[in-house]
TrEMBL record:
UniProt keyword annotation of Iron present: yes
Protein name: Nitrogenase molybdenum-iron protein alpha chain
Molecular function GO terms recorded: ATP binding; iron-sulfur cluster binding; metal ion binding; nitrogenase activity
Keyword annotations: ATP-binding, Iron, Iron-sulfur, Metal-binding, Nucleotide-binding, Oxidoreductase
Higher taxonomy: Bacteria, Pseudomonadati, Chlorobiota, Chlorobiia, Chlorobiales
Matches recorded under InterPro entries: Nase_comp1_asu, Nase_comp1_CS
Keyword check for Iron: yes
Native source organism of the sequence: Prosthecochloris aestuarii
């Protein structure tokens, strides 16, 4: 049975959300969580670079690059540098995977090396 945690202060909820992140990531993520305060106008961060491994409204930058840019290639072996978890979860998840022109053509689509 799950226990319910009640917060009386919205900033306590924000602290609870970011405490699971490493300090550097938590600092960046805390700026993206906006509290409703009638006294101040919130500053929304809309044009900020995403951090690989962090899912945002625009999804993960690493998985997006791997799926959109590297996904359609079949005649090269992809060597990527990024979090290994991202590499694993973005491996062969593209809906429209590339196919070789014939059985004689190279198809390295199933392979990816990660540093």
């Amino acid at each position: 049975m799950e226990s319910t945690i009640k917060f009386s202060d919205p900033s306590a909820i924000k602290e609870e959300l970011i405490k699971k992140y490493p300090p550097k990531v938590a600092k960046k993520r805390s700026k993206a969580i906006v509290l409703n305060d009638p006294e101040t106008v919130p500053e929304v961060q809309a044009n900020v670079r995403t951090v690989p491994g962090i899912i945002t409204q625009r999804s993960c930058s690493y998985a997006g690059c791997k799926g959109v840019v590297l996904g359609p290639t079949r005649d090269i072996v992809n060597i990527t540098h990024g979090p290994i978890g991202c590499s694993f979860y973005s491996w062969l998840t593209r809906r429209n995977q590339t196919k070789p022109e014939s059985a004689e053509h190279e198809n390295y689509m199933p392979y990816c090396f990660s540093t």
